[in-house]
Amino acid sequence: MMTTLVRLENVWVWRGSNLALKDISLDIAEGKFIGLMGPNGGGKTTLLKTIAGLIKPDRGKVIVNGPISRIIGYVPQEERVDPDFPVTLYDVVEMGMQTGLRFFYHPTSKEREQIHQAIESVGMSEFAYRRIGELSGGQKQRVFIARALVSKPRLLLLDEPTTGVDTKARDDFYRLLASLMSDYSLTIVLASHDLEVVPSQVDEIICINQAVFVHAPPEKIEGTDILTKAYGCEFEFMLHGRYPHRVIHRHDEDIDG
Q1: pTM of the predicted model, to two decimals?
Q2: Beta bridge partners of 166
Q3: At 152, which CATH number?
Q4: CA atoms of 21 and 47, how far apart (whole Å)
Q5: How far apart are the C-alpha atoms of 200 and 50, rounded to whole Å?
Q6: SS3 133
Q7: What is the pLDDT of residues 47-91, one digit of tens each?
């Protein structure tokens, strides 16, 4: 029987006067790779932050199977880094150690081993003592994933991790995630607009636009009008081989980001 890591029950979230999430109920099962999809402004980031405990629901509840800090690792959409700030890749990953919140913290030998293991797992060992500001955008993203992994969470939340990367870097990134799922026994929820690729990579898709329109394997969505309803335009995606295709027939009105 599959373990549920996180359960959301009738969750509502307002951001100021704007409704962000509407009556969200879903389970995140252990060992799944889940694609979180939906239009700009549809609530993907809010949902990830709510699962991570960074946003408290206005109604409903989030039930986590254990302490959030030990269960969940979160990589936000954008991390701004001062290129002149004298902090290395190693320093950034060390910040992910829960004990790193203590004053005058010095990692133990076991913790240092965990830090190096996390850096190695994302293929960045040769850059371990390079300043974070000297790295490319794709390399920084790997560092932030290592920071989230260093405390060995069971669930990794990623918000738009492939934005702005080229095709090769994107494909390398998905291969990295497959490796991390195996090495760390991870469950992953990845928010993305990458509708051409994500359905071919994930076990399940959650499509939201304030409310959940679907939570199902990609093949169960193909040929339905669920994405049309969620995105507000006529929409069809077809799983052809490894990579799916999408066709947008008509867009009646813009959806604000």
Answers
A1: 0.85
A2: none
A3: 3.40.50.300
A4: 7
A5: 26
A6: helix
A7: 999 999 999 999 999 999 988 878 999 999 866 667 677 889 999
